Amino acid sequence: MNILIVKLSAIGDVLHTLPALCAIRACYPRARITWVVETAAADLVKGHRALDRVIVFRRKEWIRQLASSHLKKGNIKAVAAEFLQFCRDLRDTRYDMVIDFQGLLKSSIPVVLAKSRRKIGFGRGMQHQEGSYLFLNERIAPVDMEIHALERGLILLSAIGISTDAIVYDVPVTDADQQAVNDLLVEAGIHGSRPLVAINPVALWETKLWKNDRFADLADRLVKEDNVDVVFTGGPDDRPVIADIISKMKSPAANLAGKTRLPMLAALYQKSRLLVTTDTGPMHLAAAMDTPVVALFGPTAPWRTGPFGKGHYILRTGISCSPCFKRDCIYHHHHCMEAISVQEVGVAVGSALKDAVDRIICPVFKNR
Predict the structure, then answer these.
(1) Is the distance from CB of 114 to CB of 136 less than 8 angstroms?
(2) How many whole angstroms separate alpha carbon 78 and alpha carbon 70?
(3) Which of 223, 236, 267, 271 could cysteine-pair with 181, CB 3.0–4.6 Å?
(4) Residues near 153 by Cβ (< 8 Å), separated by ≥ 6?
């Protein structure tokens, strides 16, 4: 049996689909399973033990090349050649089923191109579908968007006879990833003598951000009051923001933004006692690595896309306009994030640190 999974992005969405992948593998242990994914999240599935093949859809890179102000004939030819190779890779197999976990117009491209009599996904009625259901021939009844994204994927599988009682991610982290993280920490002056707390302060949406001086204040409190080492994480573009946060601190902290591939970041979070974070992809990566999360939520809904599982702490003000799901605050006050105090986050972190110690002594999750 040949099965194609379509989940292109983003980091959190791909992580939320890993339990579905593991459920498919458990149901069809001899199947050949392929996953189509965009570049940014590809490292989360490359090398996964439940997968046989990964096809990378370089959609964003092609768009950037074609939109370049210095577009050359050679660029067009290169993009065309890469896209044709992508099509050949996708169509060199006839799949017994194609499952569209994305449900967006962009995911319809590989769905349409793939050879299969069964093209499965949610039918009309799901939010943000962009008409993607039109390209399916097995349309599963839509479900409430207030259900967590991870569970929606499992509901989709259940409708076609694939069920599971276990939530398994099995993020592909190698010994080399672990060693690379150890080397980075030693280079940053962190030798493992104290508990490690990771902070991921940046998000793509401006409405999800918390002020830099508050992160600096929080990190100082953690170092002084909880006797931990603090490491900041993020992408390459986040380094200046994190450098600004560290410049406001009185205590030392490490800036590893841009230095860790996703499997290395997973290894780092696995070593951490907990992660403090805004609502962004690394939050889900820490949860997938069974690391407690203290998450700051404003414009989005944690019951939809919060850190999945037990033992996590969510801080949100719950004001009337939240969640608005908007990248820009229509009131220009960002009150949903502004009203979260350093004191409140510090209390949550203290409780999470205690819980983490309890879990090390006796690994029992506490429901929040």
Answers:
(1) no
(2) 14
(3) 267
(4) 16, 17, 19, 20, 101
218 three-state secondary structure: helix
Q: What CA–CA distance (Å, rounded) separates 292 from 117?
A: 42
Buried (b) or exposed (e) across 56-83, using 16+ Cβ within 10 A? bbbbeebeebeeeeeeeeeeeeebeeee
Residue 124 CB contacts under 8 Å (≥ 6 apart), including other chains: 133, 139, 142
Is pLDDT of 333 > 90? no
SS3 127: coil
The residue behind tokens 């994204």 is 149
User: What whole-number distance in Å separates Cα of residue 34 and Cα of residue 15?
Assistant: 16
Burial class for 162, CB neighbours closer than 10 Å (0-12, 13-18, 19+): middle
C-beta separation of 34 from 304 below 8 A:
no
% of residues, the chain, pLDDT over 70 = 96
The mean pLDDT value for 121-139 works out to 93
Residue 315, Cα to own-chain centre: how many angstroms? 19
